[in-house]
Predict the 3D structure of the following.
Amino acid sequence: MSGRKRDRSVGAGNSAPAGTLRRIALLIRTPRRGRGFWFGLAIDVLWPILMAFTKPVWRGGEHLPRAGGVLLACNHVSFLDPIEGTAFVLAQDRIPRYLAKAGLWRIPIIGWVLAGGGHIPVHRDRSAPLNAYSSALAALDRGEVVVVYPEGTFTDDADGWPMRGKTGIARMALATGAPVVPLAHWGGQQVLRRGRVVPRLLPRKTVQVLVGPPVDLSEFAGMTPGHKVLTAVTARIMDAITDLLGDIRGERPPEGRPAASPGSRVATEVGGDSGDEISA
């Protein structure tokens, strides 16, 4: 035996298998060690439901590194996003760790799933985000996939385009050098949109995930992470996510979006301290 880790990802990471039974059976091939009991149980329960009652379309999985710390930066349109995102990452033979609002840890069952899965709570008081930041850096140092919703909440845009991102992901990227891989969700809002408790499972909806190559942040290497630099890095990340969403929708993103700020063109050192926030 060569001793090399076998690549169990789906079709080189490009798409979910055709056919409901094949998609459900894919669960058997996903990594189990490191999930934790409650997170693993949630995956085992929700995976067959997701695969049976939606039509997942996954593209770009080859851009998610097979090892090492990664920041996975996602837009947020639906309660279904973390479920679909988890399935996608597992299918690439990785296990996701989410930055999420600390209040979710107080909800029965959901709190057990989050705590058992090694996810990272983000508290809303002024000093507590530093704890989430430190925990995220530690996870990246262990080689984890850390999932971040840079907007910090569901988009408020009437047409579903991403809003301006918070700068915590930029600070993490610059501090660690971890690749920032952009991911766009679309379609989940037709199944379990914001404000709904009961999902609309029929007729089955197409739910899409599109992943792009790591965002090129090389021009910011070595810069002091001041406010303008962090804003520029965040805008670069949000632009990448928005462009992917435009590809999914077959539409050109609207001009003048908050993510496309003038700061995204910063190419020289800008001093100053940052009031960055950790997203959840």
